[in-house]
Amino acid sequence: MAEHKMKPTETLTPKFRVSFPELYEAKSFKQGKPKFSVQMLFDKKADLSALKNIVKVAIKEQWGDNPPKGITLPFKDGNEKELEGYQDMIVATASTQYKPQVVDQKGEPILAHDDVYAGSYARAYIEAYAWEMKEGKSVLKRGVIFNLNMVQKLSDGERFVKRADASSVFGVVEDSSSTHADIDEDDFLN
To answer: Residue 130: in which H helix or E strand, if any?
Structure first.
């Protein structure tokens, strides 16, 4: 099989911690169009030069060698969010309106939605895209976002959302056949 030739605005990310994975069903935020997305949590010591480079290329392609000031970049400081696992991380979101391919370490499709969860580790194939929001002839905002193409789960990790095991909550039920037999609706409603 021939190796895919990436555009200058595309790259594979380094390993990241998965947060808010919406990889199997598109979700809408703030009345926007439904999108598939993932928040990528990179250790602050991680080499993000490939991501920074595709951002620079997208900026140059959109605005040339002398870009305007005030461009919103796709990187956020995790310490500014009070969420588990975000401390000392660089956060970047990648999204798409098209369902991304999600594969395991061997490149095989992951079909079970719960296999890629908040706290697991992955890498992604992304593209930087420059945008402008205009009103009439005035530009209100400019920025660069990451478009999500594919995700490869690399390993499991401690889940951010911890749930109790159902067997420890419910316990054993001996006989469920008489559960509703002794309930008198009139007594219940009075």
So the answer is: strand 121-135
Residue showing tokens 């959109």: 62
Contacts of 150 (CB under 8 A, 6+ apart): 100, 101, 102, 103, 124, 125
> Which pTM value belongs to this model?
0.82
Q: Could you tell me the pLDDT band of residue 11, with boundaries at 50, 70 and 90?
A: very high
8 A C-beta contact, residue 96 and residue 151: no
Neighbours of 158 (CB within 10 A): 11
The residue type found at 169 is: V
Count of C-beta atoms within a 10 Å radius of residue 74: 21
Give the domains, in start order, of the chain with CATH numbers: 10-158 (2.40.50.140)
Q: What's the rounded Cα separation, in Å, for the pair 57 and 64? A: 9
Structural contact between residues 151 and 104, judged by C-beta atoms closer than 8 angstroms: no
Residues making up the chain, counted from first to last: 190
